[in-house]
Amino acid sequence: RELLTKSKMNNEAMSNSPKYAAMEAYKVAVTDAATRKEISFEELCFDGSPSNKDDAGGGGAIWSFRFKESAGRDWTSWDPWWNRQCARKLVFLRDGTI
After folding, report:
1. Which of 35, 66, 73, 96 is deepest in the core (most CB within 10 A)?
2. Which residue pairs from 79-87 have beta carbons closer than 8 angstroms and sit at least 24 positions apart in sequence?
């Protein structure tokens, strides 16, 4: 936690710098995880209905998926990420389907 609070750049500078955007997102996630133990359906699930789309055109979370190397060659050989392509994109729906 000490590292999270001792940032060398102020939040405004970090939010304007793409180089630090991922680290800032990580810090926010770690801080959030310290205060709660679950996520909501809205955070986990995709809802493509027009009424639930935000101003950015989103409809919920779209997750990237790749196999870990430990899955073995059979699995990683056909995984796009291990073949220098973009990882698969998945969405979780409220009815339990992916």
Report:
1. 66
2. none
Q: Give, rounded to a whole angstrom, the gap between the first and last alpha carbons of the chain.
A: 35
User: Rounded to an integer, what distance in angstroms lies between the CA atom of residue 28 and that of residue 15?
Assistant: 12
Burial (CB < 10 A; 0-12, 13-18, 19+), residue 60, is buried
Q: For residue range 50-86, list pLDDT tens digits in order.
A: 554 454 445 788 999 999 999 999 999 999 999 999 9
Q: How far apart are CA 20 and CA 23, in angstroms?
A: 5
pTM for the whole thing? 0.55
* Distance of alpha carbon 71 from alpha carbon 78, whole angstroms: 12
* Of residues 63, 64, 65, 61, the one with CA closest to residue 46: 61
